[in-house]
Specification:
The structure is a single chain. The radius of gyration is 23 Å and the shape is globular. The relative contact order is 0.15. The strands form 3 sheets. The chain has a 14-stranded antiparallel beta sheet with strand order 8-7-6-5-4-3-2-1-14-13-12-11-10-9. It has about 500 residues and is mainly beta. Helix 4 crosses helix 7 and helix 6 crosses helix 7. It folds into 2 domains: about 250 residues, no CATH class; about 230 residues, C8orf32 fold (Roll), CATH 3.10.620. Helix content is about 15%, strand content about 40%. The protein contains 8 helices and 22 strands.
C-alpha cells in the first residue's frame, strides 16, 4: 500500500532557501550573489541561487532579495521536480516592506504575497484560483528568510554566544523565533576541500506553534560567511559553490526519499489492517515521545519515565468506545467552512457531495459513502506532486494520500459535516514498515472519527499513529508536515499487543 506521505521538494526548498550570502558586484543593481548545491544523503538534488539588488522605491533606496531554488527528488521511484522563488523588498537597514513567494509544478501553483505596515502584515495565500487573506503579527526587527545568514555575516557569533531574533519563514506563513548558538569549531567537508569552520546551531520556532520547531546547522568562516548548511532530520545539506557546479547536470543515482523515511516496527504487524486494537511502545532518539504524539479520540498516549510512550490505538467507529483517557478538541468554524485548499463551496464539489453522499440522514453512513467515492474517483496514484487542492484533485482524478484526504474533507464539509485532515504514520504491509501518511477526520456525534479515502475501508484500522491535524485555515500545506520533522530518523516503534 504505497500511500505514504513524504516531505516534498516545496518544504525542502523553503528550508534551504535561507542559505544566502554575499559575492562580487557583477552588474548595475546587483550587489551580492551566491550559488549553493543541495544534497540528499550525499547525492546532489539541485541548487539555491540568491541575489541581492539595490534599487529605489519612491525615491528611497531599497534592497530586493531574490531566492530561486530548483530541486529534484525521487519519491517512490518517481522523479519530482520543484521550483520556487521568493522575492523580498526591504530597507537598507533590513526592515521588510513586502514579499512574494511562489512554488509549484506546472499548473499546480501556490503563491503567497505579504505587505507589512507597522507591527502587522497582511498575508494573501492563493491556490487553486482562490485567495485567502490573513493578518499576522510582525514584531519590530523581523527579518526576511535570509535573516540567519544576514545576521551572522553582519556580526559573527563569538564562542559561547547565543542570539534570538524574529524572522518570517514562507514555509509557515508566519514569523518564527530564531535562536542561534555558537557550538564550537569543526573540520567541515565543503566542495572538494576541508576547512575549520564555526558551527552555529539554529532553531526556528513558530510563534503560534511553540511546541514545534525546525533545527538546522550553519558553518561559517571567520567573517561570518555561511559555507554550509545541514538539516539533519531530512538528511539534507547545502554547500556554497560556483554557478557552474551548482547547475551542472546530475547523472548520479539518487536515493528514494520516501522509502528512506520508513520506520520498521519490532515485531512486524501481521494482518495489520484487520487489527481493531494495538498497543505500541514508541521511543525517540532525542526527546520525550509523548510530546510528539497527541491524544485523539482513537489514540491514548501515556508517558513513561524513560522518555518512551505507550500508545493505544483503536479502530474507532460510532459504536466503538474511545480508549480510556483520550481527549480531543471540539470543532471550530474553520472545520466547517471552505478555504483555498479545501474548496467545499466549489460547485463540482457540492454536486458530488450531494449525489455521492446519499440521502440517509445518518452522517456516518454519508461519510463512509463519500470515503468510498473518493477512493474510486481518484483512479491514478500520482507521487510526482505533494499537494493539489481538493477541487484540483477532483478534476484531475489523480493524487496520493494528500489529495484523497483533502478531497474527502471538502466533500464532508459540503454536506455540513465538520472535517479536518490528520498526519501521522500508517503501516504499509508490503514494506512491513510504517510510512508517513495523511487521512481525514469527521466529527460524527460528539467525536472525531477517522476515515482513509486512499483505501476506502469504511474507517481506519488500529495500524495508524496520529502526529497532528489541521483544517488548512490560513496555513501553507508544508506547515502540516512540521511535526513530522521531529520524528525523522529518530523514531522507534515496538508492538506490545495487537488484536
Amino acid at each position: 500500500m504505497r500511500t505514504i506521505l513524504s516531505t516534498g521538494p516545496v518544504a525542502v526548498g523553503f528550508l534551504l532557501l535561507s542559505l544566502a550570502g554575499c559575492g562580487k558586484d557583477e552588474s548595475p543593481g546587483l550587489v551580492r550573489e551566491t550559488w549553493d548545491a543541495c544534497y540528499l544523503d550525499g547525492s546532489r538534488i539541485g541548487y539555491v541561487h540568491t541575489a541581492y539588488y539595490r534599487e529605489t522605491d519612491a525615491g528611497r533606496p531599497i534592497v530586493k532579495i531574490v531566492v530561486d531554488s530548483k530541486l529534484a527528488l525521487v519519491r517512490f521511484g518517481k522523479r519530482v521536480e520543484q521550483e520556487s522563488r521568493e522575492t523580498t523588498w526591504r530597507s537598507e537597514e533590513g526592515a521588510v516592506s513586502r514579499f512574494e513567494v511562489s512554488a509549484g509544478q506546472g499548473a499546480s501553483q501556490q503563491k503567497t504575497t505579504g505587505t507589512v505596515a507597522g507591527d502587522k502584515a497582511t498575508i494573501v495565500l492563493t491556490a487553486g484560483g482562490k485567495a485567502a487573506t490573513q493578518p499576522i503579527d510582525w514584531p519590530a526587527g523581523t527579518r526576511s528568510s535570509t535573516g540567519v545568514e544576514d545576521e551572522l555575516r553582519a556580526a559573527p557569533l563569538k564562542a559561547g554566544e547565543t542570539r534570538r531574533f524574529p524572522m518570517f519563514l514562507p514555509m509557515f506563513n508566519s514569523v518564527v523565533n530564531v535562536d542561534l548558538k555558537h557550538a564550537g569549531v569543526e573540520s567541515v567537508e565543503l566542495d572538494g576541500s576541508r576547512r575549520d569552520l564555526t558551527r552555529v546551531d539554529v532553531r526556528a520556532t513558530p510563534k503560534t506553534q511553540t511546541d514545534q520547531y525546525l533545527e538546522s546547522t550553519y558553518w561559517t568562516d571567520d567573517r561570518g560567511e555561511t559555507l554550509k548548511l545541514a538539516i539533519s532530520a531530512l538528511r539534507m545539506t547545502a554547500v556554497r559553490t560556483t554557478a557552474v557546479r551548482a547547475q551542472a547536470p546530475n547523472t548520479e543515482p539518487q536515493p528514494d526519499f520516501a522509502l528512506a523515511m520508513l520506520v520498521r516496527p519490532d515485531p512486524p504487524l501481521s494482518d495489520a489492517h484487520q487489527k481493531h486494537f494495538v498497543r505500541y511502545q514508541v521511543k525517540l532518539a532525542h526527546g520525550a515521545a509523548a510530546e510528539a504524539f497527541p491524544s485523539a479520540t482513537y489514540q491514548a498516549v501515556a508517558a513513561a519515565a524513560d522518555g518512551s510512550a505507550e500508545i493505544t490505538v483503536v479502530a474507532l467507529r460510532p459504536d466503538v468506545a474511545s480508549p480510556a483517557g483520550t481527549v480531543d478538541a471540539t470543532p471550530v468554524e474553520a472545520d466547517r467552512r471552505p478555504n483555498p485548499f479545501i474548496e467545499s463551496d466549489d460547485p463540482q464539489i457540492v454536486k458530488a457531495a450531494t449525489e455521492q453522499g446519499g440521502a440517509d440522514p445518518d452522517p456516518w453512513k454519508t461519510a463512509v459513502r463519500l470515503e468510498g467515492f473518493v477512493q474510486s474517483h481518484l483512479r491514478r496514484v500520482d507521487f510526482s506532486k505533494l499537494f493539489d487542492t481538493a477541487a484540483e484533485a477532483y478534476r484531475s482524478k489523480k493524487g496520493d494520500c494528500t489529495e484523497h484526504a483533502m478531497l474527502l474533507c471538502a466533500l464532508l464539509r459540503a454536506r455540513g459535516i465538520p472535517a479536518r485532515t490528520a498526519v501521522g504514520l500508517v503501516y504499509a504491509e508490503g514494506e512491513q514498515a510504517f510510512g508517513y501518511h495523511m487521512w481525514t477526520e469527521a466529527y460524527i456525534g460528539d467525536r472525531w472519527i477517522p476515515l482513509d479515502a486512499t483505501v476506502g475501508r469504511g474507517g481506519i484500522s488500529a495500524a495508524y499513529l496520529k502526529v497532528s491535524d489541521t483544517n488548512f485555515n490560513g496555513v501553507d500545506p508544508m506547515t502540516t508536515l512540521l511535526p513530522v520533522t521531529k520524528l525523522l530518523g529518530r523514531l522507534k516503534i515496538g508492538v506490545v499487543e495487537a488484536r
